[in-house]
Amino acid sequence: MRSFVCRIVSLVLLASVAPVAAQTYPSRPITIVVGYPPGATSDLLARTVGEPLAAALGQPILIDNRAGAGGTVAAAYVARARGDGYTLLVGTDAMMTSNIYLYKNVAFDPVNDVSPITNAGANIIVLAVHADLPVKSVAELVAYAKANPGKLQFGSSGLASPHHLAGELLKLKTGIDIVHVPYRGGALSANDLAGGHIGMAFLSYSAVAGLIPTGKIRILAVVEKTRYAALPDVPTVAETVPGYEASVSFGLFATTGTPADIVRKVNADVQQIVRDPDFRTKYLERFAVEPVPGPLDAFSAYLRKESAMWGDVIKKANVKVE
Question: For the whole model, what pTM was predicted?
Answer without folding.
Answer: 0.82
